[in-house]
Amino acid sequence: SGYYGFNNSGDDAILISIYSSILKTGRNIDVTVLANKPEETSKKYGVKVIYRYNIFKVIKAISDCDLLISGGGSLLQDRTSTRSLVYYLSIIKTAKILGKKVMLYANGIGPVEKQRNRNMVRHVVNKADLITLREENSLTELRKIGVKNKNAIVTADPVFAMESISDAQARKAFELSGVPTDKPIIGVSVRNWKNIDGFLYDMAKLCDRIYTELGRNIVFIPMQMPSDTAVSRKVREMMKNPSYILSETCTPSEIMGTIGLMDAVVSMRLHTLIFAANRAVPMLGFVYDPKIEYYLNLFNMPKGGSINDYDMEKAFVSIKNITENRQKYSDDLKVISSEMKKHSQDNVKYLFKLLDK
Q: What is the pLDDT of residue 332?
């Protein structure tokens, strides 16, 4: 169970990573995924899928399973909506009512702001058999909510274990997207958010400076389609210089591959940052959520500020510094991402320990 089938490359990357980690064990495991757009998701990733809002099929699937994975990402939060929080908690609660084991798999927790929602999270999550969390912040948030479940362990985001396409395939993906590779590339990943218009205007000016003063092509990386594509186009239209946009048809592994050929990445999106770290590509992040700040600190990479309190001059200096000292930043990221990959692989080990009980 997760935010799958919504054309979000970050969440689909989580699905791919969990599924492939299970397959790599060589165990005879039958996996069913609850997703939006079941046919499309099944065709894209080769998984067995049922429609997540077909209550009868969902209950039947849970009834037939040995274990439910509530898988990855920021599922338990109410910043986007209470309805999605209730959905994921309901899936977990149904599994427990039916006597099934439940694992929260590398979850990011919060923010959960409404007291009624915090009470629901506490009530349901305390009943989970195993909780792995992608960062220390999430464990802290769980404890603040009042979840006393002792089977809670900090691991790492599943996507650290995801495999990328080759450099040759990535160059082909650039070609299909109409992206020239005649000079170094800076990737830009922006998303829609409240009161963001002023930020986007200043982002366009930053991209123009990167193009003219640093001699880098700008390539926008949409992670949630079509909304990220639309907001990327807004920035492009405000720019004076040419820029490019990665095709919406790119899979998460293809996006990670293309990022691997970039000089650096400027991003609001968490999984763009994780993709970059996986490929040891330096980054500059803009913070719209505490999870972004957490990972930038983890990667020891610069912040451009929050989207409501930023300094584009400082951001430009940071990007210039990254491009001039790229090898050092890249070497540091290799060490960090290698460590995170090990922690990420712990998730599936804990999963099978629980299943084998």
A: 97
